[in-house]
Structures are given as structure tokens and as C-alpha cells.
Specification:
Layout lengths: L1 H13 L5 H24 L8 H8 L2 H22 L1 H26 L4 H25 L3
Helix pairs in contact: 1-6, 2-4, 2-5, 2-6, 4-5, 5-6
């Protein structure tokens, strides 16, 4: 039921995106959500002592990965702002808020992050960004 609701929400808000610059921001949102997910693997506490996420975070060169992801984030956000400053800014703020929600929930309820929670974050973040872009598209037709 939740998957069906997610699909309906995503499709409904996506169908409202009419302007090419908003569609460009929407495309960047997939990249941005995955950058945040990668940063969470590097920066946040792991919930388990074993598993694929723990292995990936232990074998990654943390400084190099963090720096690379941060550079990619800056480039992605600059592109989003170039395409549409309003949609880009609101999408970035939405991604940041969903990241804070993910960090709080995973820390409070699970004691850290897991691979499943990282996947949950990506979907929530992408849904949030397509929702705000769809709303902006409706409010600022032109």
C-alpha cells in the first residue's frame, strides 16, 4: 500500500512539471539524493557491526570520498540554481531537511544507519524534491 501511495504521489507531482528548467532541476535531484546518501555512509554512525554498509564505509578512503562528494554536491547545487534559482534552492533545502530527518530517525530509533535506511532516505528525499518542484510548477506557471 505504501509503495502504491509513493508511486501515485511521485507520478502526480511529476506530471505537474512543465517548464524545461524545472525538469532539469528534477533530474539533478536524483544525483543530489545519492550524494547525501554517500555522505551519510561516510559521516554517520553505523547501526550494525557487520553488513555491506559497514564494509563499504570501512574500506572507503573517508577523506577522499568526503571531498569528492562535497565537490559533486557543490557542482550539482550550482547547476540546479543556474537552471532555476527558486526550484533549485527549495529542492536543496528539501534535500537537507530530509537528510536531517533521516539522521534523527536512524540515530534515535536504530542507533545508526543501515543500508536499508539509506535506501529509504533516497526515496524520501527524491519524493520530497519532486513534490516541491511540482508545487512550484503549479504556483509559478509561465
Amino acid at each position: 500500500i505504501c509503495l502504491a501511495i509513493y508511486g501515485l504521489l511521485f507520478t502526480g507531482f511529476f506530471s505537474e512539471i512543465k517548464r524545461p528548467e524545472y525538469f532539469g532541476v528534477f533530474c539533478c535531484s536524483f544525483f543530489l539524493s545519492r550524494i547525501f546518501s554517500g555522505l551519510s555512509v561516510i559521516c554517520l554512525k553505523d547501526a550494525k557491526k557487520d553488513g555491506m554498509l559497514k564494509t563499504a564505509s570501512n574500506t572507503a578512503g573517508r577523506k577522499a570520498v568526503f571531498t569528492t562528494l562535497l565537490i559533486q554536491m557543490v557542482l550539482c547545487v550550482v547547476l540546479m540554481l543556474y537552471l532555476s534559482w527558486l526550484a533549485g534552492l527549495i529542492s536543496f533545502v528539501t534535500a537537507c531537511l530530509s537528510f536531517l530527518y533521516y539522521w534523527r530517525i536512524s540515530s534515535k530509533q536504530f542507533g545508526g544507519i543501515t543500508g536499508d535506511l539509506a535506501g529509504f532516505f533516497v526515496t524520501v528525499s527524491e519524493l520530497g524534491m519532486v513534490m516541491v518542484i511540482g508545487i512550484i510548477s503549479v504556483l509559478f506557471k509561465g
